[in-house]
């Protein structure tokens, strides 16, 4: 995703079919820029992505790295080992 995708995000975030499942009110370019600007610039922990099919945008997904202190919550045990207390994730 990059700033060129903000217009399509505004379109999607005002689509009634999307709003049926989206937890926020309809949007505009200023709100999309404020929310997604830091994300596309790498200044936010969420990484936004536009899904494309045959070079046409068809959806939005996002991902983020799980913080170390949340790993066990998702079923990844943390074990501190060795004299340096190195973090190992299994």
From TrEMBL:
Known EC number: 2.3.1.-
Record bears the keyword Secreted: no
GO MF terms held by the record: transferase activity
Keywords: Acyltransferase, Transferase
InterPro entries named in the record: Acyl_CoA_acyltransferase (IPR016181)
Entry annotated with the keyword Lipoprotein: no
Full protein name: GNAT family N-acetyltransferase
Short name of any one Pfam family annotated for the protein: Acetyltransf_8
EC category name: transferase
